[in-house]
Amino acid sequence: MKNCSRHFMRTAGAIALVLGFGIGTAAAQAVIVERGVMPPPRVEVVPVAPGPGYNWVPGHWAWRGGGWVWITGHHVRGVVAPMPAEVVEVVPTRPAPGYVWVKGHHVYEGSRWVWHPGVWVR
């Protein structure tokens, strides 16, 4: 009963939020609370920098080839901006049964953090 009430409150709150943004009831769709399962961050020991001017890029998860892959932390030469805050996404309606939502995430590419938006995948 407790889980049912929690689910109802979460769904009611999500619908109220959607309607509160001025979206007409004809355009309102079911809100999916599912967020894809990204594993928790791993604990890393940061080794000593290989030399002056090197900075640490923290390890992070990235979606690659149908699954989450851990990108190990590493030193790079130059300035490393802190990982940006997670972007709050509006999850679109599931396109069909059998699709799983992969939440958006930041990945360090080149010399900067790049946002990869969430996507439905089979």
Could you give a short account of the major beta sheet? 2 strands, antiparallel
**Number of helices in the DSSP assignment:** 1
Note the quaternary state here. Answer: single chain
How many domains in all? 2
Strand order of the largest sheet: 1-4
Rg, please? 19 Å
**Class per helix and strand makeup:** alpha+beta
Low-pLDDT segments: 1-35
Termini distance? Answer: 32 Å
Topology, number of strands:
8
Helix percentage range: 10-25%
| SSE succession | HEEEEEEEE
Average of the residue pLDDT scores = 77
Estimate the strand proportion. 25-35%
3D shape: elongated
SSE inventory with pairings:
Blueprint: H1 2-20, E1 54-57, E2 60-64, E3 67-71, E4 74-77, E5 100-102, E6 105-109, E7 112-116, E8 119-121
Antiparallel strand pairs: 1-4, 2-3, 5-8, 6-7
Question: What can you tell me about this protein's structure?
Answer:
- The strands form four sheets. The chain has a two-stranded antiparallel sheet with strand order 1-4. Strands 2-3 form a two-stranded antiparallel ribbon.
- A hairpin with a 2-residue loop joins β6 and β7.
- The protein has one helix and eight strands, in the order αββββββββ.
- It has two domains: 31 residues; 87 residues, no CATH class.
- The protein is elongated and about 50 Å long.
- Helices cover 16% and strands 28% of the residues.
- It is of the alpha+beta class and 122 residues long.
- The N terminus is likely disordered.
- The two termini are 32 Å apart.
